[in-house]
Amino acid sequence: MNVEGKHYRTIWVKDKDDKVVQIIDQRALPHKFVIEDLKTVDDVAVAIKEMHVRGAGLIGATAGFGMYIAALEAPEESFNEAVKASGEKLKATRPTAVNLAGGVERQLKAMEKGKGKEEKVKIAFEEAKKIADEDSEFCKRLGEHGLKIIEELSKKKKGETVNILTHCNAGWLAFVDYGSATAPIYAAFDKGIKVHVWVDETRPRNQGARLTAWELGQHGVQHTIIPDNVGGHLMQHDLVDMCIVGADRTTFTGDVANKIGTYLKALAAKDNNVPFYVALPSSSFDWTMRDGVKEIPVEQRDGEEVKYIQGMCNGELKKVLLTPEKSPAANYGFDVTPARLVTGLICERGICKANEKSILKLFPEKKVNLMTEEGYVKFNCDWIKAKPVSESDLIEINSWRDKMFQCGLIGMFENGIGFGNISVRGPEKNQFIISGTATGGIAPLEAEHYTVVTDYDIEKNWVECKGPIKASSESMTHAIIYQSDESINGVIHVHNLDFWKRLLEKVPTTKKAAKYGTPEMAEEVIRLFKKTDVKKKKILVMAGHEEGVISFGKDLNEAGQILLKYFEKAKPIV
User: Fold this and answer.
1) Quick one: 65 and 142 in the same domain?
2) In this structure, are residues 47 and 36 in contact, taking their beta carbons and an 8 Å threshold?
3) Which of 22, 208, 430, 518 has fewest C-beta within 10 Å?
């Protein structure tokens, strides 16, 4: 987009030095336009964590370029380990936007095709540019789809100005170019439609007042900055024709995580019959999470952001304390708007309703993925939300979970689907502590990421769990293993395609027809315990769950040691 008449993207490779990535340091806007050089992985991690760059699409693109820098930094002799470690460092910076982990995993998978460091670096460079180009192109397309909504409103108003309310910054500064929520606005403005934007200031970092207002002004779009609490009043007095916001993560069922305060705008819009749209490229969909309110991790940032405000004073950027110095402040970065409050989703493939059926109609290929990854039938889960188990109960399980994560045996696929889980038997019969659903890509896990399975019934395909998060989708399989042998006290489920292929039928293996998360898989595990030497070998392969391998033992130490022993033996010779 334009800055003083010159076109910029938010991230690019430095001219005449392709080992340096450049960004617009958004902390200085709108008062100063600062271009920052990123030369190391640490530079990239700081840029993401400290919000030199922000917004789902731009964070994903920055992760892509960060992994390119990681490839440049990695030593030849330990290249794969080094880039994976850099990827974990980047993923740990901010948890809510799904694009971050997606960019890292996409690069790791792409680099697997290279044979040596030089080739892998080239692949990473091209993939980083591809991620950025896709983000820009997808935003452009969703702008063209969203334009149709604004055109219809303009016709209804007989050419009068269409008033649009937005929240935070989902503009080109939040992506590589065009933006999500702003893309339809720019498309309408460029077509000659009269538009006016109500710009929420968006406390505490004021991304609306600072960034959205700045970029709209650069493009020439009429706009007015408002305090965050004004939106409802405007809607009550028919001064808002539609709301458009962005998204940092959207479940495949239509729940939307976006900047804190979005939920309140959606409630006001619902009460006043104002259309509430969410604009997002498909990279911001999470195909693993069904219940956004319960499952999407919400970042809690430093309370100092609430207590202080930054602005221009006598030609200098200064911070000012707003609150009593010793008063504590809570700073939730995001909230989740339930699908029922969303009029529609605008993405690069078109406009759909905020529900699973309509979303999958736009993305039919994901329906197959969901069935494959999650099983065609999930167990019925009675989840009792409760406080987490004590940290002392998690020392052993966290230790082995960290080891599995570091080995890449637990993690997240390129499409954002997490894989792998771990459990330890609880003090009471039929109970065990297990990592929660959709936690594969999170490291390290905290107490809030575990839950206790308190009861189960294979015939009813039913699990009861108690904790801050719903139990993993493979909980029934863990339950059956514990049921099959009372001496088993630890179970580890991992993923690795090459490992899986080399173990297939070499150790006890479930039938291919038994899919992930199904009662048939549980029945197959029972069969292995009755008819094979799985008790002796303490490891099994799930033929119907590609990449899935499970080990178990008298404790997690035994289960982990067995798994690593087989994993080392199964490693391909380079």
Assistant:
1) no
2) yes
3) 430
Whole-angstrom distance, CA of residue 360 vs CA of residue 78: 41
**179 and 122 together in one domain:** no
Token representation of residue 476: 């029934």
Catalytic positions: 248
Nearest of 50, 95, 335, 91 to residue 205 by alpha carbon: 50
Helix axes 56-73, 79-91, angle to 10 degrees: 150
Q: Which residue among 82, 117, 134 closes a domain? A: 134
Q: Which two tokens stand for residue 301?
A: 């940032």
Residue 531 and residue 395 share a domain:
yes
Q: Does residue 155 share a domain with residue 95?
A: no
Distances (CA, A) of 45 to 38, 41, 382, 452, 529: 10, 6, 39, 34, 47
Assess whether pLDDT exceeds 50 at residue 211. yes
CA end-to-end distance (rounded Å), the chain: 46
Q: Is the pLDDT of residue 506 over 80?
A: yes
Residue 224, Cα to own-chain centre: how many angstroms? Answer: 32
Question: Residue 344: is its pLDDT beyond 60?
Answer: yes
In this structure, what token pair is assigned to residue 7? Answer: 């076109």
Q: Are 287 and 415 in contact (CB under 8 A)?
A: yes
Which domain, by its residues, includes 326?
136-372
Distances (CA, A) of 537 to 140, 509, 532, 551, 559: 55, 12, 10, 9, 10
How many Å apart are CA 460 and CA 466, to the nearest integer?
A: 19
SS3 51: coil
CATH code for the domain of 271: 3.40.50.10470
pLDDT (tens digit per residue) in 230-253: 999 999 999 999 999 999 999 999
Higher pLDDT, 386 or 518: 386
The predicted structure's pLDDT at residue 379: 63
339 and 411 in a common domain: no
Last-in-domain residue among 335, 356, 372 = 372
Cross-strand pairs, 308:
321
For residue 114, give the CATH number of its domain.
1.20.120.420
Same domain, 272 and 237: yes
Q: How many domains does the chain have?
A: 3
514 vs 91, residue with greater confidence:
91
Shared domain check, 397 and 339 = no
Q: Tell whether the model's pLDDT for residue 570 goes beyond 90.
A: no
Query: Does residue 502 contact residue 549 with C-beta atoms inside 8 Å?
Result: no
Report the alpha-carbon distance of residue 437 to residue 319 in Å, rounded: 41
Global pTM value: 0.65
Query: Do 385 and 363 belong together in one domain?
Result: no
Can you say whether the dihedral through the CA atoms of 53, 56, 61, 65 is positive or negative? positive
d(CA 68, CA 59): 14
Q: How far apart are CA 168 and CA 153, in angstroms?
A: 23
pLDDT of 355-385, one tens digit each? 999 999 999 888 655 544 443 335 677 889 8
**Is 475:436 a contact under the CB 8 Å cutoff?**
no
Look at residues 244, 249, 260, 245 and name the one whose alpha carbon lies nearest to residue 282. 249
CA distance 306 to 203: 8
Q: What is the DSSP letter of 212?
A: I
Q: What is the mean pLDDT of residues 89-97?
A: 82
Phi and psi at 555, nearest 5°, equal -155, 175
